[in-house]
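Researcher: Structure prediction, please.
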Amino acid sequence: MSATVQLTYSIPPPDGSKTYTVVNRDSITGERTQSWKEDVRSVQIEDVRGKENEYTLDTAGFQFFRHPTKHTRFLDDAEIKAEYYPETAELIKKLTGATEVVLFEHTVRRRRPGLIDDGPQKRQPVLVIHADQTTPDAFVRFHKHLPPKDPAHPRRGRFQTMNLWRPISHPAIDSPLAICDYRSVNADEDLLPATLIYAAREGDIYYAKYNPKHRWVYKSDMDTADLVLMKSFDSILDGSVAGLALHTGFELPEVPEGTPMRESIEIEALVYYEGDQVGGQLLSTYTN
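Model: Predicted structure follows.
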């Protein structure tokens, strides 16, 4: 089943200047400072429930799984780090076959219309198409979070950055997650590097320029045992595997009145495969 929905792409500054977004909105006006323009497009999106096995991390850039989580509160960052991080790291290792998994960031999002998204505890679903790291930013993450155990022997394995996303509290019927099949993406033309400016730091991501060839999918009624792994980066850069998964929240038409508003958590991970030489020679390309 497919539907016509509105998704938000990005138009870079016409003068060629830096594309950036100041993440925290003005606490009074709710306005967000940004150098780019929104490009809202009507697109077809397909519900892939029942066809999930057609999409894998290395073919499409994402993969759906089912695995309930032991931690269920998602109300306290310290609890999340103490309880959800360890079980999630082990789960990602199991699902991917990775040697090491380092979790470095998480965001809990609760859709609350009218609440200004001006701080970490008030994050709303992101309704702009994006991927979570640029290539240089992924290498910065690698050198920061997985330094060599022996400086004389640098790491040579394959690594990825990825995002594990799942609903919390109840199924994500309101404001679900749309994901773009990497096989429909022209990475040289469609990706727009951008900087997110926080109060104390900056981070680089990709926004997306409109391409009518993009194939958008979602999985309907994902519940708290459902999860999706989405690549942000893969050190295999020769085009033989999917590099990333563009994604965004979106609004489905005709959501039943009274449907609980979306609540979700996304956790960002560095995933390393010891001894996998494919892509390993690229690790020296980027340094701290």
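Model: Residues 2-272 form a domain with the Jelly Rolls fold (CATH 2.60.120).
Researcher: Thanks, that helps.
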